[in-house]
Structure formats: C-alpha cells, structure tokens
Design goal:
This protein is mainly α. It has twelve helices and no strands.
C-alpha cells in the first residue's frame, strides 16, 4: 500500500483496494492474439490487451493516446470513478459506440437513451455542457444522425483534456503504472509503519 492510504476511511480503502487489484490484473494479463477495440468489450471487467511500459509512457503524450488503449481507458476510468466524476468518460464512450451504429432504425432509440442519461435536465449522469451546446444537441434529437453528439462529445473531450487528464497524470493511478518499481520501494520502506497499524484497517476474507 502506497503512502497516504492508511489515513483514509475504511470504505475508501476498500474501493482503492478493489481498483488497485483490477488495474494490477489488467496489466499482468496477456493475450497477444486479441487486439479488438474497447467498443466491442463494453461492461467487461477485464481486458486481454497488455500494456507495455513504452505504451504507458505514451499515455502522457495526449488524452487521445490514453483512451484509445484498452488498459489506458480502464486506468483513466478507474481514476475518474475514484473522484466520482466518471460521467464524462462514460458519455464519450457512449458517443463512440453510437457512431458505429449501422442500422438507421437503431439510431433514434440509442440517441434518446444517451440524451436522457447524460444531457437532459433530469439526466442521471449529467455532463457539464454550456447552454448553447446543450440546446443544439437537444434540437438534434428531433432527427438523430450519427453526428448529432459530435459537438457535445468534443466539448467533453476538451474538458477532460484540460482538467481530469492532467490530474490523472499526477495521480497514483498513472505514476504507479509508469514507474512500478518506485511504488514497490515505497511499500517496502513503509512496511513496518503499516504493520504497526494493521488493526485499524478493514479485514478481508
């Protein structure tokens, strides 16, 4: 466990432990024969593509590099979830999947689902859009096309790029992946201190 986690509430520790386990398994699991995009693996807890250290370092070059890689997308989403702000990346993913729809009859119901979930005033996972973009997207719902969410998606991408992406690069979610040896050394260095307060941590079966 890296420095700082010992002071968190039990519920946060439990969430952090779960996410750390998923991310660790994600980078260790390999399946070189499978390179399909993340769009065909929606809602799967484990991806089979392995991220090399070289690839992980490229994630710091641009948000596009990060979220175009299955492991990078999973790491970024876990980070956003830890900040209770995963609605932006969920909206971006939904838009990418929407643009891949080939059947015209499926466009309208899918568009309305995305709109109701992320953009409407009663949206359960409302994203932060300016009023002009929100109104434009609302008008696009009259006759939905594959490009009806393009402007809203672009605004949310820019928002993530300027805000949450920069925080991600400074977070343990990224630093422990790009330099795992540093985290191992820190864990070893703090082993005795953590051992002295293990009675404060929640117990797992």
């Amino acid at each position: 466990m890296c420095k700082g986690l010992a002071g968190l509430p039990a519920s946060c520790l439990r969430s952090a432990k779960d996410m750390k386990h998923r991310l660790g398994f994600l980078l260790q699991k390999s399946d070189s024969g499978d390179h399909s995009s993340f769009h065909s693996r929606k809602d799967r807890g484990v991806v089979s593509q392995r991220a090399s250290q070289e690839e992980v370092k490229k994630w710091a070059e641009s948000l596009e590099n990060l979220i175009s890689h299955e492991c990078g997308l999973a790491a970024f989403k876990a980070f956003l979830k830890s900040e209770f702000s995963e609605e932006n990346i969920d909206f971006w993913i939904s838009c990418e999947e929407y643009k891949k729809i080939r059947s015209p009859s499926k466009l309208s119901p899918k568009a309305k689902k995305i709109y109701n979930e992320f953009i409407s005033v009663q949206a359960t996972k409302e994203v932060n859009l300016d009023s002009c973009t929100r109104e434009e997207t609302s008008r696009n719902m009259i006759h939905p096309t594959r490009t009806c969410f393009d402007e809203a998606q672009r605004k949310i991408f820019n928002l993530m790029e300027k805000d949450s992406y920069r925080r991600f690069l400074k977070s343990r979610f990224y630093l422990d992946l790009v330099n795992p040896s540093s985290c191992r050394a820190e864990r070893k260095k703090g082993a005795k201190r953590l051992a002295d307060c293990t009675h404060l941590l929640p117990q797992y079966a």
